[in-house]
Amino acid sequence: MSLTAKRILVGALVLALVALLGSRALAEIYADALWFQHLGYGQVFRRIFWVRAALHTIFGLLAGAFCFANLTAPFRLSPTFKIRRRRYGNLEIAEAIPTRYWVAGAAVGSLLFGVWSGNYLARTRTFEILVWLHAVPWGARDPVFGRDLGFYVFDLPAYSALHTYTVLVLLGTAILTIVTHLLAGGIRIAGGRLHIQPEVRTHALFFAGCTYLVVAWGYWLGLYGLLNSGRSPTDALGYTDAIARIPGHRVLIVVNLLAALATFAAIRRRSRILVAGSAGLVLFALAFVDRAYPAALQKLRVDPNELALERPYIRMNMEFTRHAYGLDRVERAFFRYQPGARPDARRVEAALAGLPLWDAAALKAVYEQVQTAENYHTFPDVDFDRYGDPAAPELVAISAREVDTTRIAPEGRTWQNLHASTAYGRGVGVVVSAASRTGPAGETIDYLAGLPPVPAAEAPAGLSIEWPDIYFGERTGLFLLYRPVDGGAPQPRSVALGSWFRRLTMAWAFEDRNILLSHAARGGAHILYRREIGERLKRLMPLLVYEPLGSGTGVEAYPVLAGGRIHWIAEAYTATLRFPLAQRGPGGVRYLRNSVKATVDALSGSTRFYVVDPEDPIVRALDRVSPRALTPIDSMPPELRRHLRYSTNFLKVQSSMLLVYHVPGPDSLYHSVDIWDAPRELYPGEEESPVEPYPVLLPDPATGKPEFVTLHMFTPRARGNLRAFLTARASANPEAGLVLHHLPAEPIPGPRQVEALIAQDPFIAQELGLWAQRGATVTRGHLLVVPVDSAFVYVKPIYVSAPGGGPPRLRRIIVSDGARVGVGTDVPSALVALESGVRPAEISLPEEPVTTVGVPAGPGWIAADSLRALIERADSALRRGDLRTFSDLWDEIRRLGRRLGVEPARRP
């Protein structure tokens, strides 16, 4: 084979490899374009695509040109390009390289370097550039530099991205240039010494001058970064930063600019004094201005007078932190707690009627055992919602039945089953249960259950489902081949696999040849992909955040029944790490707002984004980036709007900030006065865990109608008593209805103290121990604290699973007022036990009736519930063989029965 033929063959192989790699990228882009287009977001895709392509091209060409100019410099500085090889002794053989070879090699290397550099900026920093290009004024300025806050949120991230790109280009080009000089012989080792040609030194001075310029740029960016990386008692700007470090950064900017000018001048004058002097000046400024002076000022002036000097900067931090997390909109109130107060029994019962007595974890265990028709069905999580008459809604638990492909038997995990079977490719229906009530034996009361889901006769209004299919869900990840059917029923929105070319493209994009070969992909077949809610939302609107940074909770989404089908509502957030002067939150975030609600139709996959806070500047910028992708909340269907809630994850972040930033002023924050903690509880066993926010239906103080509210409690740091509580009302506005209720500074029992009180109750301890001895599994529910009038009521459910397994049942409700404990099979009986003081394991009654033991006279409903509680405890005493307790209780039952006009049978 001739030399020319070999070159042609090698060139063809290289082109084929490039085409192969490029075709995969083009196939992915094509699949993206089809997916965005069929969902109605084609304009979003096109804008991101063209901006990314422009960034890749422009900055790739800039990097490539800079690299090429430097790689050809050794040839220009040393026209005879040689490779020196030592053969033996001092004999050295030099081989000259033709100019065209060197220029071609430099061009290829620069092209590859430019592609890599442009790809970095286009792939990782596109969205920072996009937001920067569509930035809007924030409307407020920082008190230090007087800059609009949008400069920090929108501009600085883009400048930082460009700075990082410049550093990478400069560093990469310098490394390639050094290699080139080594090959050219400008840098070599001979006789054990390093020899550097004068031309190489000149080239090195050019890179040194460029480095000074880049360092000066970095100090300019760092100047504004000091607002969030200071030395104050908070982690924001402090006195030392304002007095020493900010001026020091300005000095370093000027010094590095002067050093760059001196270095470039040294190239022309060949002056070593300029080079050494500029380097010495930079090192001196770095050591004294940026290190020694700030440290001395902090040690000698600030530390002895810290509060007086730091007070204005702490005040700034408090103001900006409250604004960053929406805490400046929190309404404050004082809860008039009265020790020993006993609110009206009916008001207590009304307040406790909307408690989630069924714990989400317990319900998930029930559903997994009872409601999974197939072994591959799963319930990813359980959410709480309200259904029924808006004037008198009922709290329910709802969970979607999805498919977990990892549970499919190995022999059933075929490609056909996983990607071309609707039986394994979709979930079916939801299970809805009463959250505040149980059946006679402690089982769940299911309002909507079974396959197909059928509503119970007593189900609240709105719990009906006509199309239960779940093609898009929390666990639905694999792509699915789908063949539309004729008829008027709604169907998934999917991408058609019409032509052979499209099937080939999809097979290449998904790296699955079966898409091309399978008969299931032909004859009018469609393909569904990106079916998992989190992935779907992040692809469509990547500029939003779908889980607060560092929360580790995943995308917060819950199912809603509306229009005879299942919809998902997901919480979306606007966030930034660069909001000035604010405290760092989870994951480093410094600004967080729950400004958008996203919906996904579980059947069709239709996805919409609704703005609930149009005044958020980040939302306004994103609306300019993706026009018509965000819609006002008013356009959300009313049957979905009534199920909106206050984001639990957002509330957790706000609560973590309120632990410190609820204090009135800088002095309180500095002295750590009245710092709070999240309360602790025993859950689910004997181990302690922090109390999480929980939803309840509480009567509205003004109207008396039940309202969906999320509660969260606070305790003083290192103490267990209650100090305050937060109520978050469900609203279309994510920051409306957030009220912080302060409590008087007196020992109000907190969750952990009530847990200790429960643990000391002999009857509860005996009953739990008896269940455990019989092999049953006892699980504690969350301790729920509910404010009623001027008191608190504490409720803790106990779940029991039969020996050998089985679904948990809600067998006991423990109620406490902070000083006493009552236990029953439901809330009314537990309240009666709380008021009566009956303790089956402790009472010892004489033969004659006494007024100190028993249920006080009251309305008939109280006496009836008391009778039921006494019968239940008597039955328990008989089963465990405690005949004395049984006899005492039976006498009490007879006395109470006579008062109700019922004569129980004589004692057996």
How does this model look, in words?
The protein has 908 residues and is of the alpha+beta class. Helix content is 44%, strand content 19%. It is built from 26 helices and 34 strands. Strands 5, 23, 26, 27, 28 and 29 form a six-stranded mixed sheet that branches. It has a five-stranded antiparallel sheet with strand order 7-8-11-12-13, with helices on one face. A five-stranded mixed sheet has the order 18-19-20-21-22. Helix 1 crosses helix 15 (500-509) and helix 24 (827-836) crosses helix 25. The protein is globular, with a radius of gyration of 36 Å. It starts with a helix and ends in a 9-residue tail after the last helix. Mean pLDDT is 85; it is low at 840-865 and 903-908.
What is the compact description of this entry?
This protein has 908 residues and is α+β, with helices and mostly antiparallel strands. 44% of the residues lie in helices and 19% in strands.
Shape: globular
Strand proportion, as a percent range, falls in 15-25%
Secondary-structure-derived class: alpha+beta
Rg of Cα set: 36 Å
Helix percent reads: 40-55%
Estimate the mean pLDDT confidence: 85
Q: Uncertain spans, ≥5 residues at pLDDT below 50?
A: 840-865, 903-908
Q: Report the strand count.
A: 34
Query: Main sheet, how many strands, which sense, barrel?
Result: 6 strands, mixed
